Amino acid sequence: MIFAGIDVGGKNVHIVITKDGTILAKVEGPTGINKAEAAEKLYEEALKKAGLKRGDISRVVATGSSGSRVAFADGVIPDAAADARGVIKLIPSARTIIDVGAEEGRAIKIGPEGRVLDFAINERCAAGTGTFVDTMSRALEVSVEEMAKLSLQSTRSIPMNAQCAVFGESEVVSLIHQKTPKHDIARAVHDAIAGRVSSVARIVGLEKDVVMIGGVAKNTGFTESLKRDIGMDVNVPDDPEFVSALGAATAAATGVLEEKVEAKVVEKEMIEEGKS
Amino acid sequence: MVEAKKVEYWRWPEASWVNPDIDWQKGKLVTVGVDVGSVSSQAVIMVDGQLYAYSNTRTGSDSPDSAWKCVNMALKDSNLKVDNVDYCIGTGYGRVNVPMAQQAITEIACHARGANFLYGPEIRTVLDMGGQDCKAIRCDERGKVTKFMMNDKCAAGTGRGMEVFADLIRVPVWEIGSRSFQIEKEPPMISSTCVVFAKTEVVGLLQEGVPENDIMAAYCAAMAHRITELLNRLGMEEKFAITGGIAKNEGVVKRLEKELGVKAADKVWYDPNMRDKGLPFDTQIAGGIGAALFAFAMLERGKAQSARKA
Amino acid sequence: MEASEILKQFSDVWELRHEYAKDWKQKRGGKVLGYFCTYAPEEVLYAANVLPVRILGGHEAPTLATPHMFDMWCPFSRDCLNQGLQGKYDYLDGIMATNSCLHPRQAFGAWTVHVPTPWNYWFVMPNAVRSPRARKFLRGELEEFKKAIEEWTGAKITDKELDEGIDIMNTNRRLMKQVYEFRKADNPPITGSEAMTMVWASQLMDKREHNDLLKQLVDALPQRKLDRDTGVRLMIVGSENDDRPFMEMVETVGGTFVIDDHCTGSRYFWDEVTPDNDRLQAIANRYCDRVPCPNKDWGMEDISRKRFTHILKLAQDYGVQGVILVQQKFCDPHELDIPSLRRYLESNGIPCYFLEFEVTVPVGQFRIRVEAFLEQIQAEELFV
Amino acid sequence: MAKYKTKGLDCWNRAKELRAKYYKDYKEAHDRGALRWEGGAWSFDAIPQALEGEVHGLTEEPYGASIGANPELQVRYQEAAEGKWGCARDLCAYLRNYWGSIVLNEFAYGGEWPKADFIFQNHICCSHAKWLQVAAEIEGGNIPFFCFDVGAGAYDKIGERQINYVVEQLYDGIDFLEKVTKRKIDDEKLIQNVKNTYDSACYWAKACELNQAIPAPLDEKTMFSLYVLGTLEKSHKDIAHFYKDELYPEVKDRVANKIAAVADEQCRVLGDSQPPWGFLRIFRYLEKYGIVSIASLYTFSLIGWWTIDKAGKLVPYPTLEEQGITIKDRDHALRLLAEGELKGKLMWVPFYGAKYKNDIITKIAKQWKCDASIIHLNRGCEGTAQHQMEMKIAVQNLGLPVMTFEGNMADEREFDEGRTTRFIDLFVTETLGLKKVAD
Lengths: 276, 310, 384, 439
Description:
The structure holds four protein chains of four kinds. By secondary structure, chain A is an alpha/beta fold. Chain A contains nine helices and ten strands. Chain A has two domains: 2-88 and 242-272, ATPase, nucleotide binding domain (Nucleotidyltransferase, domain 5); 93-236, ATPase, nucleotide binding domain (Nucleotidyltransferase, domain 5, 2-Layer Sandwich). Helices cover 45% and strands 20% of the residues of chain A. Chain B folds into two domains: 15-119 and 270-300, Nucleotidyltransferase, domain 5 (2-Layer Sandwich); 125-260, Nucleotidyltransferase, domain 5. Chain B contains nine helices and ten strands. Chain B has helices spanning 63-75, 107-119, 159-169, 173-179, 195-207, 212-234, 250-260, 272-276, 286-300; strands spanning 15-18, 30-36, 40-47, 50-58, 87-91, 103-104, 125-129, 134-139, 145-150, 240-243. Chain D has one domain. Chain D has helices at 12-28, 60-68, 71-85, 93-103, 128-138, 160-181, 187-209, 220-233, 237-256, 281-287, 297-301, 320-323, 330-344, 354-367, 388-397, 417-431; strands spanning 5-6, 35-39, 55-59, 118-123, 145-149, 259-260, 267-270, 291-295, 306-308, 314-316, 372-378, 402-407. In chain D, the strands form four sheets. A four-stranded parallel beta sheet of chain D has the order 3-2-4-5, with helices on both faces. In chain D, strands 8-7-11-12 form a four-stranded parallel beta sheet, sandwiched between helices. Chain D is globular, with a radius of gyration of 21 Å. The chains are: A alpha/beta, B alpha/beta, C alpha/beta, D alpha/beta. Chains in contact: A-B, A-C, A-D, B-C, B-D, C-D. Chains C and D meet through helix 5, helix 6 and helix 14 of C and helix 5, strand 5, helix 6, helix 14 and helix 15 of D.
């Protein structure tokens, strides 16, 4: 049977289509202003890539901060649950998951079957998120990839007050004025975020194996800083940004999701109730 | 937060101006104030304490360059050279990196002094809404600071935040103010204080089909509210004047006045003949004016020596 | 020895506090006890040949402490716990906390659960220090504490030893006060950050050694001339503050701290024990009468605060032109006093500026605030 | 088909009446020539209430909480406290509500701020004494102020010396009261008030003890509105009567007849600290999954008195009858009052260390048969938020799943409902693996 997992995050949409546990196609694209539209468009693209029609898909499960916006999904699961399912499939020895995306850093402790045992998330501030990295790379006038490479060359640690993305920017600028080598600044940025992320991870407890996923996991500069910070090895699967979508696809293959769909619905009602 | 390829909606028009009625050569002392802020830089040239020329540009990634850029821009239509300057004071975020300056003074002192010059001696509270921070200042009839407060370690409700917002909503930053009033009724303000999360919230609203103008209103209202909190902590005393870039954004200013129940001083020159001549009035040059006036005072009181080379 | 060399030694103890304590154990063979707050009755500890060292932070993001104290707790206390969890205090024989504010209480609580320090003690320092009833209660508490220490060290504490303990502490207090006297001068021979380092050192090293150095310092200071302008005479008032980079920054942009009221300064040592035949009662009286932490600064029948008049007097005695109020983020006791203290000082003609501290201070952001505050105080020359 | 029978409490409206009357009396006290005093939920109200004639008190925490339940009011009051008075935003949320109310000269129950004739407070957490010290300052500084210290040690360390310390202060308090009010303390009244205090504190604990039953007769959401009476005036005869003769028998009856607080109870939750008052609906959301918050150190012992029996079990503190005590005189009354509060109010143990809190929490989790714990990391109250992360670890070590969420009991600006429901959704469906049982 063929299943699809769709992860609609704050910045990007990731879609994975699987057949009997193997990946047929995966696509990625910006979420943009209209998330539902973006998901729709990318889903078509994924189907084309896999040479399939909508009818061929047995079940579609969505996840991510805006997973509930995917009208054509048969079910929605919480993003941390998708993370857990995706990771345990790829790395069965995983017990701690660190997922740093554009606007959220979270840590999940999982059991041997991938059940979520504990969960923590960074406070509502951009420090400790992918957006912080992007902002700093722009202040440094290099691409995120270059910044990663640069920071690997640094042997010096400069404490940085990662209070706020905007102030971080000016901190970087003043470091530039002080003629601090770019690679040291790059490392300072990664160390700062790694500090924020690791303290979130420590709340759930760092248990081997530690697996990092999400867009920022591709940033080797960051993962090095994180390893240094937690003094443990950090395992990064291929295409870490697709793991959540893969988890959703896995859930589609395994789970009967009705109650979770309802759960989401109730949650939405409640939020409205809260607004009114 | 701004990709180069995109249209730069945050980019506000730069400006420069030279006073045609002043012949600097007839003057005694030429003083300059250079305000290198985190977002914008201004140079103000004064002749014996009278406004001779100014410029307002965007700050680059390097303060000394930005300082040269705005000084040269201010002098581009004048035969006055930097060597003719008697004394120069740097202020603002990059104040210690102003190559042509003999001294540095904080923008808090300079904005209070500048507001006193722009708006007159009755000003007791000055709000400088700058690029990265927001300063609430109390001052006396000479523009001398008596008390001040600055926003905390977070950039919520600053000019930079407004730029990010403009870019996000794809509306030129100078249009946001007026458009924020083209609405049915005031929407609830943006709740998130973090610039980055406000961004998420705005995207959410756009997606729910909330009209752009309403979102602009919601954002301006949030900013006005943050600033009100700061002014309440300081303790308002009239008259009240606003300097800095956001002063140009009526969407924020009008809502701020409403929440405070106090009207800000009109943006017109206090000095009658400057007003009558209809000289351009720019709230962003208050810091530069203050610095140039302090430079003039330092020379007058013999606290400093003229650095004029030619 | 020259004053600068002595001050350098204080600074070295601060830098190498752990090495110092380990070394002390070797030499003196006594136990080392870490304490969390300046209400710990060190007299009793010196009487038992125990070295009291104050637990201080490391000025780093306390990531190890996060699972034990979430971020509504004072960063300094989290930093202290972080040091313990990192094993930096593995040489301690014991740890104690006193009934003061809630924040170190969290750190102490987590410490007793997760850091394998062999012995720990909770000292019930009464809150109603301005009530005569507290003196009697505290005497009893000291009696129990003395017993506990005796059981721990296996040696009785004699009256003679108690007298020594009191004398060591009083001498230390008296000498530091003498050093502070020099700060009244127009051009003080010792900066605020140096003075603060001296006080830290007394919280970290054997006060007998500290006293010897202080005696030499008192003799050496008259010969010392600092090659710097005093600039604006400042007072720093606050919660715990061990932020030397901040102090140094302020003293390089045109100000000098000539006096302070914080627990790494005068508040720690200002008051002496008035000897009495009932030694424990004498000690109890001292801790009830000392300049209180805001948390304990409330009267039995009115809303006056003892600390405010004390601060104003210090400011006047030391010719203070401006006060910088600093406070560790989330420090409730000081947050509760600051709006009133600010009004009180300003109504007495002393300008104030408030700064909220964390363990890592954004010196850049604070610098402009401080410079502007100094300009506010001495801006006359800028006006025609 | 629901698992158990359920129905609302018969004494519910009575509790509401008593609460409304309390605030009305305080507001109108002066019109009736009665005295008004400000204090705290932990003040020994038995003493000022023993003054001759009519006396009414206002306790600070419940007042701050009732404002917290009204987001619009709360934000306005807190911004007044922060802006106009200039206090820090992270101080106790109740306190900021209270100060703001005075700054704006506005009483949440209508009219202007009813200024008190005197303050009778006690101190254990950092804020208590200072709270009213500053309140009096904002009100003009001329309100007689008395505060005594109850931070004398953990329940198991309480002996003669500790009780003497508090009792001596209470005598000072009586001198103070008689001096500033020019009224005498009526010993008959005092003795009765202490009796009532015992009944309120012990019978509330007895009612809580009954919650060990499956299904639980009470859920925390309901208990919040019941214990509050004890934070207002536990020495009042009507309130003592409510706990002893109305609530306790009814709960007993519910247990006998297996009447559940939540019909689909399938997961019994251990809570902690005050909830975010403006958002009690999160409890309703949990109930849709049969998740019921049935126990917490906070709801049990904010006013309830407890003790540890020989078997090491947590049991209600014995009433005066059970101890076979009849109060002889003033001194006897004061000593018994101090003893009950210092030995019985286990809500104070967190002030003496994580081990104490963990020990009691462990007993509760076991005796009340909890299946999981949901901890509100309460940014609004350092006192009840003491050692919450240690509690999390301790409960996890018992093998119970734990969810924490950050919030604030009375500052809605610090509670993110969307995110919290996201947490709950994850915890419920993934960690607990529960299905929805009701709509």
